Amino acid sequence: MRSLLRDEILKTSDVIVVKVGTNVLTLADGLLNEERIAALTADLCGVIHSGKKVILVSSGAVGCGMGQLGLKERPAELAQIQAVAALGQGKLIEKYSQCLSRFNVRPAQVLLTADDLSNRKRYLNARNTLRALLDFGALPIINENDTVSVDELYTTFGDNDRLAALAANLFDTPLLILLTDVDGLYDRDPADDEAKLVPLVERWTGGLMKMVAEKRSGRSKGGMSSKLKAAKMITESGGNVIIANGDKPETLTGIFTAQETGTLFITQNNHLTARKRWLGFAVRSEGCIVLDDGAVEAVCKKGKSLLPIGVVDADGMFEKGGIVSLTNRNGTEIARGLTNYGLKDVLLILGKKTNEIETVLGHAAYAELIHRDNLQLID
User: Fold this and answer.
1) What are the extents of the domains in the chain?
2) What does the DSSP 8-state code read for residue 279?
3) How confident is residue 220, by pLDDT bands cut at 50, 70 and 90?
4) DSSP secondary structure letters along 163-215
5) Which has the least CB within 10 A, 50, 93, 221, 316?
6) Is the torsion defined by CA of 268, 271, 276, 279 positive or negative?
7) Confidence check: pLDDT of 188 > 70
8) Considering the domain 285-377 in this protein, what is its CATH number?
9) What pLDDT is stored for residue 354 in this prediction?
10) Please, which pLDDT band fits residue 81 given cuts at 50, 70 and 90?
11) pTM
12) Are 165 and 281 spatial neighbours (Cβ–Cβ below 8 Å)?
């Protein structure tokens, strides 16, 4: 039954995004694991030649640079990390190019930062560029642009897991494959002799994150929690995710032949529009609007727009048309949206009825603070 499910997912996915982490691509000393990269590219080329569209999101630039410099630990200073990434990126793409040439597949290096996908115009441009590359039969190889990025080098949602999810979310029905150094999600710390692999996650529960045992190395930033966050993002948007062991040479072959490899997270059947996916997951919030209990229920359970009367506080640097987070009184983010009013006006009309907006502001261009069409819930 599970094999049939995986086979159907492979057939219906409009793109397969494979993310491979630093620990899979490099040896203990930080040098590239050339044998593993050769096997990885061979598997990917086989899928491309079968007619599927594939994107590779590759970590390893910093780890590769560390190997070239003989460093044993990841540098702590930003300038040093960026310099190491610059040294490693060229070597990394050079190796991919050598391996892909054997299969007559052209690599296309795409360097991005989270800001590139937070900006609406650049988000659309990235999507169009990736689609054009796929139409040409190329293999886009995405990596974080560590030589210019700042936040991404220190984020806890890192090691390209979030970037891979954002890239996958550029498409309608993606399959995101996150390759790591464990077999998948376990019901407890994998070091525990009684730990069992979870083969299938059909729905999200509060206990999933509690099952995570973090393990970080000096060469990578990510952990299982970052992979779960990426999986949650994709399954809430209409895609599917597999977390599996990239150290095992048979892993991708098993996945591409619908074998029960790793942990499969299936879609929650929320087929969001591209705009909704951008709004809910890619864009960065410019401020915060706090809702009372009644407004939370209206927005989350009744599908209503946000009215000023349900707002109790606001903060940030947002103007009209800005992206804001909506939170409950406890500070938990419940949604994100495009506001019709800037912070200054929001603070004047919060708690007011719609028919009082014009009296307070001298104008009432909008009845809603945030219209439902410009709002995306965040579970």
Assistant:
1) 2-276, 285-377
2) I
3) very low
4) HHHHHHTTSSSEEEEEEESSSS-BSS-TTSTT--B--EE-S--TTTGGG----
5) 50
6) positive
7) yes
8) 2.30.130.10
9) 93
10) confident
11) 0.81
12) yes
The neighbour count for residue 267, using CB atoms within 10 Å, is 19
Q: For residue 273, what pLDDT is reported?
A: 73
Class of domain 2-276: alpha beta
**Tens-place pLDDT, residues 99-158:** 999 999 999 999 887 777 777 888 888 899 999 999 999 999 998 775 555 554 444 335
CA neighbor of 63 nearest in space, from 29, 40, 35, 36: 29
- The Cα 322–Cα 333 span in angstroms is 16
Buried b vs exposed e over 9-37: b needs ≥16 C-beta within 10 Å? bbeebebbbbbbbbbbbbeeebebbeebb
Q: What is the pLDDT of residues 255-312, one digit of tens each?
A: 999 999 999 999 986 667 777 777 777 778 899 999 999 999 999 999 999 999 999 9
User: Average pLDDT, stretch 316-335?
Assistant: 92
Measured CA to CA, the distance from residue 39 to residue 41 in angstroms comes to 6
- CA torsion through residues 79, 168, 210, 324, sign: positive
User: What amino acid is encoded at 38 in this protein?
Assistant: A
- As a whole number, the mean pLDDT across the chain is 86
Q: How far is it, in rounded angstroms, from Cα 29 to Cα 70?
A: 8
- The amino acid at residue 226 is S
State the residue for tokens 């939170």. Answer: 327
E strands present in 285-332? 287-291, 311-316, 323-327
The upper half-sphere exposure of residue 360, i.e. CA atoms within 13 Å in the direction of its Cβ, equals: 17
Q: What is the DSSP string of 75-102?
A: -SSHHHHHHHHHHHHHHHHHHHHHHHHT
Strand partners, 58: 20
Strands 311-316 and 287-291: antiparallel
